[in-house]
Amino acid sequence: MTSQERAELERFIEQAWEKAHEMGLHPFPVHFELVPAHVIYEIGAYGLPARFSHWTFGRDYHRQKTMYEYNVARIYELVINTDPSQAFLLENNSLIANKLVVAHVIGHSDFFKNNTYFAHTDRRMVERARLHADRIRQYEMEHGPQRVEQFLDAVLSIEEHIDPVEPAYRRRDLREYEHQKSVLARPTSEFDDLLGRVETPEPPSTKRVPPEPEKDLLLFLRDYARDLEDWQRDIIGMVREEMLYFLPQIRTKIMNEGWASLIHERILESLPLTPAEHIEFRRMHSSVLSPGSRMSLNPYYVGYQILRDIERRWNGELPEEEEQPETDWLQRPKPRPTGEGWQKLLEVREMECDVTFLRKYLTEGLVKKLDMYTYKLEEVDGSLIWRVQETDWEKVRDTLLDSMTNFGVPVVTVEDGDYGRRGELYLKHHYDGKPLDMDYTLRALKNIYTIWNRPVHLETVMDSEIIIFTYDGQQVTRHGQGS
Amino acid sequence: MWHHPPFLLSQDPWDLHHRAERDRQRHNEKVKEVIKQNLGEIISQQDIITAHDGKIVKIPIRGLELPRIRFDPNAGKRVGQGAGGTQPGDILGQETVPGQGAGKQAGTEPGVDFYEAEFTIEELMELVFEDLHLPNLQEKGSKKVMADTTQFNTIARKGPLANIDRKRTLIEAYKRSAKQGKPGFEIHAEDRRFRSWEVVPEPQRNAVIFAMRDVSGSMGEFEAYICRSFYFWMLRFLRTKYTNTEIVFITCHTIAKEVDEHEFFAAGDSGGTKLSEAYKLALDIIDKRYNPREWNIYPFLFSDGYNWGDHEVVKLVEQMASISNLIGYGEIADELWGHSDAFAPLGQALYERFAHDPRVVLVRITNKEEVWPALKRFFSKHPEVNQA
């Protein structure tokens, strides 16, 4: 990019910023950095600049770079959720492409700052991740890269099994838990004993660990796996922290991209562009916002269309017959709003994540307009085909929501950390009708064994029967319940 | 609220920033590891044995994924989206079985991620031979057996970015900027310096390999295939890594005969079996042409283990072991015949005598995939053996 173009881009950012301010956006300050393609692909693969080293990131980097070089797909922008936000622009993009990206980035930064699901994310994550990387490199020197890699492989393969509902710093140990129970059982008035309301607190007889089923598998392993060395506990903690940081982005993918797309459109429409620039902007905009491959959803497109729909409805712009009247809790139709569209959007971007967003705002009209459907794999004459099942909007919505529950990962809890009084680990998969991929799951179970270092059990349901898989370090065995 | 909006636009040199290279290379290594684990299967393919140099072999491997506790990707419903007018019953696509058709596109489809690694025959050879060595090789004789090693010891102007020498590159950039009288500096392509390597030949080791083959009537099609396959890889290995090794080819039924390479591979099967003749001929050739003080000696014999005069063979192998670096005996057993794990009579006789002698390696092959393990057993380093 020439210095002249850079100066023009700088002027454009100033204008875009003013515009965003007028629209009621509150982004973090942003550091825009023009970089060559390989840097964008690298940071895209790692998720954060200077994150720790692992071969899976190298694999993703290689894939993305190859797709870029063959012109199959390209990343236009990359923005990190920090304060100030750090955004990376491709230095060999055209000026208008970078203008669009700048406006898009402002949308993301506003979303990061204002959406409630991001409230607890660490806004200095780049520095923190760099410290993590330094520590892991140190461990590689002390314990050998191979040992560290093997351990990271095991931890990363279960990285989604954390509990984002609890704040990252919560820790209720056994004593606190017992204390809390006794507080709940304590008399609340001086007459309670006369009225027979007092229950004697249960003695903490079975020192069960965990006291109640624990969803945060990483945290549990970090604190209770007996044979881990300090550096290993540290690695589990670091992976968990980084996952807690990334999780809100996973949970708001559709909204976040939809929001940024809406913002870049509004900003570019309102600023002076040359006719050639305008045509190029429209071309890029419609290529980003088009239906995905038929087997997946394009989050940009779906998010953008739902937000547009909300805005129109709350502006009172939808014709009566397309309107699905909002009802209150007694099923009485609410009066149609007028002229509140933008205000409503600002509220939605603050309050919702993808699951709540889709549940509230994906309407019958939208499912039809976006041509959404459910599909599944069927066997026909010995070959396997993917076939459309339903177009009914409620079924489509529910299937979509179901696939996003617990961010698409099976819910597994630690039931017992001293199973059979032999220090074995008993995990339970909370079956919801969707069967597990046993090949992958059993390999993951072996990884958990390498951390726990004692036999590991996993309870699940197969063909309506409770099945328990056990890995003892040698082999996997399978039992029905009770046997 | 603000006079200047809170943003910063910057452009800095990133030429030397290649953090991801290391992890990319590590991933490539892991891909190779997976391929190496499956080498047995890969190298037993007829079309690889007959492939010409430079041919590209596609090897489907399962994408290197970390295993996760996940839902069965092929069960249950998902949500998709079309361009309009989709009806229940519409077909979206067919699930492709890996290895068939275009499997290389980045997966938009759910399911298992397969990855097709492409190798030329030469690269595949390199993988196959990476861990193979002539065991117990001694420094003997005056003729050279080259075993090349590489050492990182020079600096080059061109090379893979992963090998870039940052310090020297920066120095070169400073020097050039200073010469041109420009303050500050940018790194140009001509400033780049890379750590590079040289191939260093190892010294003087004479070696002779005896490739001996049972061509009696009891050797069926399968036995012959295994035998050819083994010797094919052995020859390629020796000629890639030990360029000056001498190879003596011997076929044997009731009479042993020294033949040339073409004849050795083409030989048909007939007659009875008297393998002692092969060893006798080999000993005779050693006596005439390969003085054990001057030569590293490696006799290999492949047979189905049905032989006349096992005791005599044992005697001769004993004699041979005293002058050889390693003796290999491979016994081929068609699984259709017997399911027992035991050796045939000749193998049994050799086993009883040499089970604890590390210089005699006995291998039993019952299917194509076992050629690779056999190669590995014969040509791995046997550090525990010292020649008498």
Structure description:
The complex is a heterodimer of chains A (483) and B (388). With 483 residues, chain A is an alpha+beta fold. Chain A contains 17 helices and ten strands. Among the domains of chain A are: 3-115 and 252-287, no CATH class; 289-374, no CATH class; 410-480, no CATH class. Chain A has helices spanning 3-22, 37-46, 55-69, 95-114, 125-143, 145-156, 174-185, 217-224, 230-251, 253-270, 275-288, 299-315, 341-351, 354-361, 364-369, 393-404, 438-452, and strands spanning 30-35, 77-80, 85-90, 372-380, 383-390, 412-419, 424-429, 456-462, 465-471, 476-480. In chain A, helix 4 (95-114) packs across helix 10 and helix 5 crosses helix 6. In chain B, helix 6 (221-241) packs across helix 11, helix 8 packs parallel to helix 9 (310-321) and helix 9 packs parallel to helix 10. By secondary structure, chain B is an alpha/beta fold. Chain B starts with 6 loop residues before the first strand and ends in a 9-residue tail after the last helix. The model of chain B is unreliable at 98-112 and 383-388 (pLDDT under 50). The radius of gyration of chain B is 29 Å and the shape is flat. Chain B has three domains: 16-66 and 110-130, no CATH class; 148-201, no CATH class; 208-379, Rossmann fold (3-Layer(aba) Sandwich), CATH 3.40.50. A six-stranded mixed beta sheet of chain B has the order 10-9-8-11-12-13, sandwiched between helices. A two-stranded antiparallel ribbon of chain B has the order 2-5. The chains are: A alpha+beta (483), B alpha/beta (388). At the A-B interface, helix 1, strand 1, helix 2, helix 3 and helix 6 of A face strand 1, helix 1, strand 3 and strand 4 of B.
Structural class of chain B: alpha/beta
What is the rounded Rg of chain B? 29 Å
CATH fold description of the largest domain in chain B: Rossmann fold
The number of domains of chain B is 3
- Lateral strand order in the biggest sheet of chain A: 6-7-8-9-10
The helix/strand order of chain B is EHHHEEEEHEHEEHEEHHEHEHEH
